[in-house]
User: Fold these one by one.
Assistant:
Number 1:
Amino acid sequence: MGNNKTIAENHKKRYESTLLMIKKYFNQNERILDVGVENSFSEILI
């Protein structure tokens, strides 16, 4: 059960880093084509 928390924390850190990079290099009105598998980060980008 403690392992799930660590996984969730790692996802949160990764999502935050990715979102910062996207905000730095992309305009807010640009679109990103996400061709990967469906995941919870995709929902954050919408």
Number 2:
Amino acid sequence: MAASLKIISEQLGLSKAAVSIYFKDPSTRRISKENKERIRRLADELNYRPNVIAQSLSSLKSHVIAILIPLNVSYFSSTFLNQALCGIQSVLFNKGYNFIFIPTRGSNSPVIVRKQLERSRGYDGFILFGTRACSEENMRENVEQMLKADYPFVVLNMPDLGYEINQIVNVTPKSSSAIRYLLELGHEKILLMAGARQAPDTVLAIQEYRECFSERGLAVNENLFLNGDYEEMVARSELLQAINNGIEFSAIYCLTDTMALGAYEALNEKGLKIPGDISVIGKNDSFFARFLNPPLTSVRVLMYEAGKLGAKNLLRRIESNETPRKIFLKNELILRLSSAVYRPLNMDQGIE
């Protein structure tokens, strides 16, 4: 006879409901540790595995969260995204939830999100990411699709768009601004290696750049705005071209550490030393930043923490229908050896 909840409950002298509660959520506090261990051992002996589909039908919950990432390329090449996913998993795992990706393709991010939602029936909630493919307008369309669908959801990796939704927003205070820090070091020719032209982080970075220069009465040279598309090789190519075109700069701020890698390669190829000739600052404080030569100064973005808080907020919404919460996490400038006080440089002397 195949093992069942009834057989396990009868052999252990427990109610069927208690056994069912354990299998739905092994971390539950409604059952003693002793009885949890008894249930687990007998289930192993009988080779019993709960029927997830049957559980979902009986409870009207799947205990599965859908991850919506509106991007046409591989998700897992991004260390930035992976940090957030690790934070999400740490919370969902402890609460007995799983997550699933809904990979689809589309001409733009709202089309991808629409297709993902069409394929996402039966999940308990959603985590929506902003990506490199999203303009601010795209992000608004994606949030409005979620509001219209009326599912529990939380938003990560987007600026505050003014909606009353569950969202974790990563912001950089003035005290951690890379541009302000470089200006304080005496740099006035700062090259900004941005991501995609339409991406909100690019738009915000250029806005901050203009504000910082305006505060000091400095003119802005738009030739110092480059787009590395968040890719190492693209950033390397763009920087090499800028140097070959005679564009002068004494510091570089890259909107990802991955693009900073490309900057390191280009500067090394041209015989320019970091930070003796050119200071470099990245963003995200990726795991490899401290292992570069020299170790990379970077703006730390708390994506692991954002993932954890986002998952917690979503589960509160699912389980108790709490009012949406918007939480702001402050980025932090981590100083290492790739940035230094400005020293005049004739760039021709360092270029091979």
Number 3:
Amino acid sequence: MYYDGTMRTIESHSLTSPPKHRSRILDAAWETRARTRAAGAYGLRFKIVLRLAVLTAFLAGAAACGRGEGSPTKNHVEIPEAKVTVVKVEPTPIRDVLLLPGVAEALHDVTLASDREGRVEWIGPREGQRVKEGELLAKIDVAALQTALDRYKAAHELAEIVAERRKSLHEGMIVSQEEMEKAETERMLALHNVREARINFEQGFVRSPIDGVVNRLEVDPGEFVRRGQAVLEIVAVDRMRINVDVPEMDVRYLKVWQNARVTVAAFPGEHWDGLVDFVAFKADPATKTFKARVVVDNTDGRMRPGMIAHVSFLRRLVPDAVVAPLFSIVDKGGERILFVEEDGTARARTVTTGVIENHVVQIVDGLNPGDNLIVTGQHNVEDGMRVSTR
């Protein structure tokens, strides 16, 4: 220490001093050292006591603040009431609707093929043109068939004349019975040839079997077609059919002539009313679903074959259901929760849902008629929180 170095310095000086002064110097030095050490110990104790006092005062102040003491004004923060909107729950009818996707198809979709081979001489309609049942659409090798028909007609006329002459000669005993019968047979064969030629001739004319629209022309005039080759396609779009695949658990709700509602993605907000005209009795072995067909009127022709459609079937009607908006349900940890207002306090209800229609859902358990259901602000409240209704 500093004081020990001082004593060593004083002692070294006292050794060089006269003897009569040496003891006096040492006594004074030792007294100074004792006082210095006492003063240092006191200062250290003072610092320790001061620090303990400051720490005690700090802890006492913190405890006083926690109890709300030490100030004439309390520091407690009031939590404001949450503002919510409520609606009174009333029994409401709700429909259990089965919604299935499907594809729109023309009620009649016909591809006309050539009945015989030959050259396409003429095609009348254009693609997109409406045609009537029985209207002439194309001619295939008609000129050659007309020539063959005329030839067989001439042969038949000659056979008729020969047969009549042989009959007269037989009556005059000029020709035998055998010659007369041979002439009659040739007349009959000529008649059959005329009928066959007329059928072949008619097959050269392609006519429309239905009222519809020409959707596609498969050949052009001048092309050679073979028997069975497609010539053109006609679709009847005045009535449309929508085919849907019905799950096994829902097919029991469908019956023929049951009403159905059809919507098309291309026309949002619009719908077509139709009827079920077919429900399959056998399931598809691959999908385990049953095919059902809905027919709707489409006189304006807006719905087109191939459009994606959705068909709604009514399974059942729940007349007095307790319902809630879908957006009022809060999902907390996998639980569906609704909040109701009771005497200015929010109360949480765990609910069980049922039928869903549009934006509302049936509440099977957890909500009762007459409850004040919170429909806005439900995400900002907890069970037991004070709320004010707007």
